[in-house]
């Protein structure tokens, strides 16, 4: 449940409490051991006898170990007598001193027991204090490891409703039906319908699975428990299963209710994959979860909602109807969904009149809800940094470039030779892309270092694409080779740099997928020769080839042929348009960053329209170089020539 933690340091408060208890104990000891001669004047026994002889003593209480009393002037006295002094009584009687005997003091048993027990009480108190802190901070501690860590979601976390969820209408509608069932079960039960026992939210990271669950909590009006899959498993055997039982016991007490398990793949992986003993702690936890969700004991009124981005690793028994009756796919939003998501997040930001959510949505294909929220936040931060009162379209464009291409590294010092090679490299990518009909339009080209690249050409599709054609893949291969070919033509084959390493890696991976997975090789035919498997517990991925040695050689030959043909295609194109390559490289050197429209304008007219460049003024052609020294420069000119790569690449 939702335990509220007290303010301040709990250790400090506990120490203060126990300190007060010990002070009270010492005060009690002091009371038990108090003596009635406190404040009396201690005098020698000879002086006491002299005072008696001169008539100054009023009374005396004579004990075996101490004589106490008062002088006639009212002062109290105390003295230690000589044992067996038989002359004291006659002396007191002779001087008219009132005296009486005092019984020997009995030992204080309670004081003795208390003093002997103090060390033991101290040890017990410290142990109890430590155990209590373990129970508070460790989710159950030594006496409560099996207690569930599920927390009830309250209004303090901020109420989220379905109005805050946009761009995933189909997923939202399926979950809205569960909420309606909780509100009005009779509407469905009169037709024989039963409430779903569970719903599994499946989707890529950032698509809004947890947000949907919070919206259900805000709309349902019933208790909502939330827990992470990793909260079940501990190092102690049996703890996870005990926590599952305890969680369902809490849910039964609050039924009807909803239990949300985030990242269920942490506890719901397929059984039998353990090393050594297959019946490990995680499998015991999963077995208990399976029994609680659909076993002999009914859990009427308890709806389990789980979220994962790895449905392929879940145990089949967990996915069957009766446990998770529905698998709700939460997809990456399309352009309409992105526009709605942007509208939700832009409500919290003061916008300038020139902001166009539709344009931003069209320029952010593949963005999930979390990415769009981050984009709006970055734009707001940029506007605040520039001391603006409103967030304009320029801030959104700059934020989009930062998110897609990385932050600019203007502090990075590059020599003129390095800038020149970077400009020609990116100009090669851009020029090939402009002349490839199947290529995506260029969004922006820059020679300003961004992220891990020293330059970049970003391409964006005109619409959302869910599959890619063969001609587009050949175009992407040619664009990938454009930067390397430009370096070869301008600086010579012996002076090419390592900046094309990312392009070569991309082209090789794309060509391999075309041959081994997508059946785009005429010699090998429409067969799959390669399968990608996840390593144990996600430790990397491995690829298996289902082919003989001769076929493997043919696969390598076909991959080489695809990349070589793309290289030849880019070479022929750049040789035919070498003057445009020089002009485009010079424009990049002069302005550092060019938009897609400006690149198209430079290629078509050799001119550029900018406030700092008068309209219609032609750009000077770059001086054709032969070689540029590459002293001490590391690789990475343009590891990412395009922002959107083909599916599976």
TrEMBL record:
This is ATP-dependent zinc metalloprotease FtsH. It is found in: Cell membrane; Membrane. Residues 606-649 are annotated as: Disordered. GO terms for cellular component: plasma membrane. The lineage of its organism: Bacteria, Pseudomonadati, Pseudomonadota, Alphaproteobacteria, Sphingomonadales. Residues 195-334 form the AAA+ ATPase domain. Zn(2+) binds at residues 425, 429, 503. It is an enzyme of class 3 (hydrolase). HAMAP family: FtsH. GO terms for molecular function: ATP binding; ATP hydrolysis activity; ATP-dependent peptidase activity; metalloendopeptidase activity; zinc ion binding. The chain crosses the membrane at residues 15-34, 109-131. Its EC number is 3.4.24.-. GO terms for biological process: cell division; protein catabolic process; proteolysis. Pfam families: AAA (PF00004), AAA_lid_3 (PF17862), FtsH_ext (PF06480), Peptidase_M41 (PF01434). InterPro entries: AAA+_ATPase, AAA_lid_3, ATPase_AAA_core, ATPase_AAA_CS, FtsH, P-loop_NTPase, Pept_M41_FtsH_extracell, Peptidase_M41. The keyword Iron does not apply. Its cofactor is Zn(2+). It is a multi-pass membrane protein. Residues 633-649 have a biased composition (Gly residues). It comes from Novosphingobium sediminicola. In the central section; belongs to the AAA ATPase family. Belongs to the AAA ATPase family. Keywords: ATP-binding, Cell cycle, Cell division, Cell membrane, Hydrolase, Membrane, Metal-binding, Metalloprotease, Nucleotide-binding, Protease, Transmembrane, Transmembrane helix, Zinc.
């Amino acid at each position: 449940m939702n335990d509220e933690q007290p303010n301040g340091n709990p250790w400090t408060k506990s120490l203060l409490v126990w300190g007060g208890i010990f002070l009270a104990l010492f005060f009690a000891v002091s009371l038990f051991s108090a003596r009635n001669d406190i404040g009396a004047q201690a005098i020698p026994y000879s002086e006491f006898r002299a005072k008696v002889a001169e008539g100054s003593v009023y009374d005396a209480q004579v004990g075996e170990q101490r004589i106490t009393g008062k002088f006639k002037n009212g002062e109290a006295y105390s003295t230690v007598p000589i044992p067996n002094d038989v002359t004291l009584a006659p002396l007191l009687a002779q001087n008219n001193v009132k005296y009486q005997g005092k019984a020997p003091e009995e030992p204080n048993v309670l004081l003795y027991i208390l003093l002997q027990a103090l060390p033991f009480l101290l040890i017990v108190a410290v142990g109890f204090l430590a155990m209590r802190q373990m129970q508070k901070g460790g989710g159950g501690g030594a006496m409560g490891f099996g207690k569930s860590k599920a927390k009830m979601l309250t209004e303090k976390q901020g109420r989220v409703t379905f109005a805050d969820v946009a761009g995933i209408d189909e997923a939202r509608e399926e979950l809205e039906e569960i909420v309606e069932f909780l509100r009005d079960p009779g509407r469905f039960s009169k037709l024989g319908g039963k409430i779903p026992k569970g719903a599994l939210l499946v989707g890529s990271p950032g698509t809004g699975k947890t947000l949907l669950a919070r919206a259900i909590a805000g709309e349902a009006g019933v208790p909502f428990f939330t827990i992470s899959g990793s909260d079940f498993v501990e190092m102690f055997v049996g703890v996870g299963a005990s926590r599952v039982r305890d969680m369902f016991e809490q849910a039964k007490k609050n039924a009807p209710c909803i239990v949300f398990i985030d990242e269920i793949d942490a506890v719901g992986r397929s059984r039998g994959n353990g090393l050594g003993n297959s019946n490990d702690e995680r499998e015991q936890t999963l077995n208990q979860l399976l029994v609680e969700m659909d076993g002999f004991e009914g859990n009427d009124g308890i709806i389990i909602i789980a979220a994962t981005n790895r449905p392929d690793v879940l145990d089949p028994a967990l996915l069957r109807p009766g446990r998770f009756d529905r698998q709700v796919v939460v997809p990456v939003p399309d352009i309409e969904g992105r526009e709605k998501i942007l509208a939700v997040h832009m409500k919290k930001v003061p916008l300038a009149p020139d902001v166009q959510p539709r344009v931003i949505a069209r320029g952010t294909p593949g963005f999930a809800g979390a990415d769009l929220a981050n984009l709006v936040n970055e734009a707001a931060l940029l506007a605040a940094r520039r001391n603006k009162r409103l967030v304009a379209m320029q801030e959104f464009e700059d934020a989009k470039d930062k998110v897609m291409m990385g932050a600019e590294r203007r502090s990075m010092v590059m020599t003129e030779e390095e800038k020149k090679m970077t400009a020609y490299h990116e100009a090669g990518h851009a020029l090939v892309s402009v002349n490839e009909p199947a290529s995506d339009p260029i969004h922006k080209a820059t020679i300003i270092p961004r992220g891990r690249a020293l330059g970049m050409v970003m391409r964006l599709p005109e619409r959302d694409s869910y599959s890619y054609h063969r001609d587009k893949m050949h175009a992407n291969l040619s664009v990938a080779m454009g930067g390397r070919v430009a370096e070869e033509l301008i600086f010579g084959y012996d002076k090419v740099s390592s900046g094309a390493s990312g392009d070569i890696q991309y082209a090789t991976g794309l060509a391999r997928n075309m041959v081994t997975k997508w059946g785009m090789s005429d010699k090998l035919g429409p067969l799959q020769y390669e399968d990608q498997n996840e390593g144990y517990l996600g430790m990397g991925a491995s690829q298996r080839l289902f082919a003989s040695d001769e076929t493997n050689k043919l696969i390598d030959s076909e991959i080489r042929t695809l990349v070589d043909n793309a290289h030849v295609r880019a070479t022929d194109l750049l040789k035919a348009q070498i003057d445009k390559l020089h002009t485009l490289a010079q424009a990049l050197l002069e302005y550092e960053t060019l938009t897609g429209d400006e690149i198209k304008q430079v290629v078509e007219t050799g001119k550029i329209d900018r406030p700092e460049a008068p309209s219609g003024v032609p750009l000077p052609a770059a001086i054709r170089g032969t070689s540029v020294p590459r002293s001490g420069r590391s690789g990475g000119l343009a590891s990412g020539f395009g922002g959107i790569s083909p599916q599976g690449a």
